[in-house]
Amino acid sequence: MAEIVGIEDFNRAIAELKNDVSRRVVRSALRAAAKPMITSAKANAKELKKPHPYRIKGLMKSRVVASNSRIASRKKMIGLYIKPVARRGVTRGAKSPLDPFYYRFVASGFHAVGTRRIKGGRVTRAMNLWNARYRQENNLKGQKARWIPGDDFIGKAFRSQGGAAISAFERTMKKRIDAANRRK
Predict the structure, then answer these.
(1) Where are the domains of the chain?
(2) Are 84 and 97 a contacting pair, CB within 8 Å?
């Protein structure tokens, strides 16, 4: 993984700025650093293979954005999420065709159980998965839950574009700190 060289200089320069200006400088640098990862995530995202009444082809790919982290802001920190989100004012939920909530199933995988309910939670699903694999390896019939593996398109983007993100962060930080110091 790449490292930022001269982080002490950045910290010193940010300490010289006012608090509200320093937050804007860091946030803009983070957003600039997120751009290569967003581009890569959009390129890696899967699209629908067959039409569905509650899904739009290419929605997950087109709605990958960087959004502010509420958890970080509550802790007086600055953070971003990179994920597909619905536009403002869009009805959310499984039956809304404009909500790409299903990205988490595509990214991390899920248990395909169909319409039946498998009781017992995580442990039972794991046992059912193990039993299903055992049955499949031994050509036995009747499996309860099938594991559909995910394609971590956001994680792949993060790993592949880490160096580009760090260089964009450094470039933007230098530019914004110099501009803020000139305004003093």
Answers:
(1) 7-109+149-183, 110-148
(2) no
